[in-house]
Amino acid sequence: MGRAYSLDLRERVLAACDAGRPSRVVAQQYRVSRAWVDRLKQRRRETGEIGPRRPRRFKPSVLAGHMEQLRALVAARPDRTLAEFREALGVSCSLMAVWRALRRLELTRKKSPVRAGTDPA
After folding, report:
1. Distance of CA 74 to the CA centre of its chain
2. Per-residue pLDDT reduced to its tens digit, 83-105
3. 38: three-class secondary structure by DSSP
4. What's the half-sphere exposure (Cβ side, CA atoms, 13 Å) at 29?
5. Cα separations in angstroms, 120 against 113, 116, 117
6. pTM (2 d.p.)
7. Mapping DSSP to helix (H, G, I), strand (E, B) and coil, where does residue 65 land?
8. CB of 63 within 8 A of CB of 91?
9. How many CB atoms lie within 10 A of CB 46?
10. 3-state DSSP helix/strand/coil percent for the chain, to nearest 5?
11. Torsion angle, CA of 69/77/111/94, rounded to 10 degrees?
């Protein structure tokens, strides 16, 4: 993700738009996208703000406090399904959250050797 455009550039872009120049022309002049110019105008119109927004913070994983327990569960029985891992952890989360936690730990689930050698009927 790139850096936000400066406040100075934003003010110059809006001044050009306020002078009656089309967004397309202003975008070409300042080497920005027309969509960005339109979003900047809309944001000023709706909120009165033109400055860059704060970066978003992502919430921590639901399983952040359960990583060592998950590692132990995989060591004990690596052929469990994601649903079985989730149930054993006793946490309400998606199967994708369990999969991502396993990936973060650089662990893989192993298929049961009993099923690995079976041929399709």
Report:
1. 27
2. 999 999 999 999 999 999 999 88
3. helix
4. 15
5. 15, 11, 10
6. 0.50
7. helix
8. yes
9. 8
10. 55, 0, 45
11. -30
